[in-house]
Design goal:
The chain is built from 10 helices and no strands. The protein has 172 residues and is mainly α. The longest helix has 17 residues.
């Protein structure tokens, strides 16, 4: 039944029922489990997705608690990446860079590494470091040719190269 509780909370989250998912996942987490990192991440996403200001604060708290975990856990890595994205959204470049570098230094798997690399390229673009952004996007496309972000990375790389005054490379 405990596994059913986890699956219900996950399904509620996927359906956009954030408040219900948060309640269900909190109940699941009330007892120690082998999926506590995953459940904590999903609880944070449910809390952040809920409408209330208190929910958002609770989501940040849940995310930060999870970020204290083992960086070899993909769910801890995801928490750091989500935190980096939230920092980027509020315009905190230094915190975004710090968090994203932390994720990348853990050598995550493709589902985490590709968006983290893309986020770092966005930071470099915002700082008008177009050659560095282009290099990072090229590395992303080369390392993860079948990733959903590869097409975007290739296109944005062309824009970066154009901004870097390399029109011939941009056209390629």
């Amino acid at each position: 039944l405990r596994e059913a509780l986890f699956l219900l909370g996950d399904a509620q989250l996927q359906q956009g029922e954030h408040a219900a998912a948060a309640t269900t996942l909190k109940s699941y987490l009330s007892q120690k489990s082998s999926r506590s990192d995953e459940a904590s991440y999903k609880l944070a996403m449910a809390q952040l997705g809920a409408k209330g200001k208190d929910d958002s604060a609770a989501g940040m708290e849940t995310l930060q608690q999870l970020m204290n975990g083992d960086m070899q856990s993909p769910w801890v890595q995801r928490a750091w990446l989500q935190y980096a994205q939230l920092a980027y959204d509020r315009g905190d470049t230094a915190e975004t860079t710090r968090a994203t570098e932390r994720v990348l230094s853990a050598k995550p798997a493709e589902p985490i590494a590709a968006p983290a690399s893309f986020l770092m390229a966005r930071i470099e673009m915002d700082a008008k470091r177009f050659p560095e952004a282009a290099d990072r996007l090229a590395a992303l496309a080369k390392s993860y040719p079948k990733n959903l972000l590869t097409e975007d990375a290739t296109f944005v790389r062309g824009i970066c190269l154009q901004q870097a005054k390399q029109p011939a490379d941009a056209q390629k």
